[in-house]
Design goal:
about 40% helix; about 15% strand; 3-stranded antiparallel β-sheet; TIM Barrel; alpha/beta; 8-stranded parallel barrel; 22 helices
Length: about 525
């Protein structure tokens, strides 16, 4: 079986000439003909070179791996039951799915509270994040969920003021934090500021804590989408030079006179800005955690990517040892705004495997009565069934699911619908529901009642899109939990799902579906 699609993808705007006849190993057309214009990735690389490494067009897309992993969350099924109830009285008039509680509390003092058990685990300086931040921030805040400001936001902002190598003022980071905090309700949700190597050097988190009132910061080791630091494309020479001066790796060198001439005559149209890879050591990790706490951080998170098992073990053990409040583990193939395409497909430990390892490592520490932070799983989650399965696979240690691409998509659709309303050009597909946001967005009436007319009218449609998507996930998750007779998140266990294949059972440690309840079945027959 071939798991990867090579040499052609919508992500790189490439395709094969012989669509039906493709060599599965190389991805090349079975007959590569002299005279072909070069539509495939090899052909496009022959004239655009390194530009074809990245998904295109940059700035208006989010991308994720199209590799088909041998095991994914669809290889598990949710086990319902007709007996009893957990977390509510076993009464058909009381044990109804709207009664399911999705609230979750995390942190060393349980002081972080979410209405819904998910978080956007880090979207930073890419255009797709910046251009949709209004919807993402306001929608997340209204829903009472978490939102993480990702890497490089401070460094990428032309209006950032830097004195003696440290940030003293910003426009973009300040806007992002304020948009979220201004729309929080009843203390639910959280805004988190993440940092990579460059952010740490600039003192971005200290600035966020001391000047913007941010209580939660996150150390970033990596993500599932790529094995290097963040990167973006820069179309403006002056901005490329500014970022170079701020210490970023910018390719080609925007201060080189020959490069400047080549750019001005149109030989290439974009610079690449890259972040450095971190060099993790226990001593450095412990020191940074202590620095952040001394700077005033109330909670410290850690996010790690799809690295090899030894790195995951370091993350789990050090998160325990240094009392981290939330550990996010991101599986390979995760979505992003801009990552090398082949890397996104071909590196890292896939979600089911890395999440299973995380559970095993966490259980090992729990069995030793050691401190464990709350854990979040991330990596391709989009709907309520996957959320339930992730919470179950990692129970009782996993409290939250991380999602990025799906929330971005919901916010983008909401924003687009808003634009069509303003232009009186609502598409037929949407117009069947109405011609204004009160008619189109099914949550509008509820939100208008809660917020009042004046506040509701200021809510952008991007935020309505995200809020409404979250409402769907919440109702769907409540239905699944009620079917398993689990009326609060704390009652979800690993035996709430079963493996549909023996390979999935072997990898996950969960029971094969034909072996579920074997002992109880025997007791029933003997009763």
């Amino acid at each position: 079986m071939t798991y990867s699609k090579i040499n052609r993808s919508a992500a790189t705007l490439t395709k094969n000439r012989t669509f039906e006849s493709i060599h599965p190993g190389s991805g090349m057309c079975v007959t590569c003909v002299d005279g072909c214009i070069g539509m495939c990735e090899i052909g496009k690389s022959a004239y655009r070179g390194h530009e074809v490494i990245y998904p295109q067009p940059f700035g208006v897309i989010t991308t994720a791996s199209e590799k088909e992993f041998p095991i994914d969350y669809s290889h598990f099924s949710i086990m319902g039951t007709a007996v009893g109830a957990h977390g509510i009285e076993a009464d058909s008039d009381k044990a109804v799915f709207p009664a399911v509680s999705l609230e979750v509390r995390i942190g060393h003092d349980q002081g972080i509270k979410f209405r819904l058990p998910w978080i956007i685990p880090g979207i930073g300086s890419t255009n797709i994040a910046k251009n949709n931040w209004e919807g993402l921030a306001i929608g997340s805040a209204l829903a009472g969920t978490g939102l993480t400001i990702g890497e490089n936001v401070v460094g990428m902002d032309p209006e950032t003021v830097i004195e003696k190598g440290r940030v003293t003022d910003t426009a973009d980071l300040k806007r992002r934090v304020t948009l979220y905090k201004d729309h929080q309700r009843d203390g639910y949700g959280a805004i988190i500021v993440q940092a990579n190597v460059e952010d740490t050097r600039l003192g971005a988190q200290e600035y966020a804590i001391q000047k913007l009132g941010v209580q939660i910061v996150e150390l970033k080791w990596g993500q599932g989408a790529k094995d290097i630091g963040g990167e973006v494309k820069i179309k403006d020479l002056k901005k490329a030079q500014l970022l170079y001066e701020r210490g970023y790796v910018v390719l080609p060198n925007p201060t080189d006179p020959n490069v400047i001439k080549a750019f001005e005559r149109g030989a290439f149209k974009e610079f690449e800005r890259h972040s450095r890879v971190g060099m993790v050591t226990e001593e450095g990790f412990a020191r940074r955690v202590e620095e952040l706490r001394k700077a005033g951080a109330k909670y410290v998170f850690l996010k790690t990517g799809a690295y090899r098992p030894a790195d995951l073990a370091r993350a789990v053990v050090w998160a325990s040892k240094y009392k981290i409040d939330l550990l996010t583990v991101d599986g390979a193939g995760g979505g992003t705004g801009m990552s090398p395409w082949r890397m996104m497909n071909e590196w890292g430990v896939p979600p089911v495997e890395i999440h299973t390892l995380t559970y095993l490592y966490a259980k090992r520490l729990a069995d030793q009565k050691k401190h464990l932070p709350a854990i979040a799983f991330a990596g391709g989650f989009t709907f309520e069934d996957q959320i339930f399965k992730g919470l179950s696979l990692g129970a009782p240690f996993v409290k939250i699911i991380g999602m990025a691409r799906a929330p971005i998509a919901a916010a983008m659709v909401g924003k687009t619908i808003g634009r069509t309303i303003e232009e009186n050009q609502v598409p037929v597909y949407v117009e069947r529901f109405g011609n204004n946001k009160d008619e189109i967005f099914v949550t509008a009436a509820e939100l208008r009642h809660q917020l009042g007319d004046t506040a509701f009218e200021k809510v952008p449609t991007g935020a309505l899109g995200l809020y409404t998507y979250y409402e769907r996930l919440a109702q769907g998750l409540r239905q699944l939990m009620a079917g398993n007779r689990k009326f609060a998140l704390e009652y979800i266990t690993r035996d709430d799902i079963a493996a549909l294949t023996k390979e999935a059972a072997e990898v996950s440690g969960l029971r094969y579906v034909m072996d579920v309840d074997k002992e109880e079945v025997e007791k029933i027959f003997k009763s």
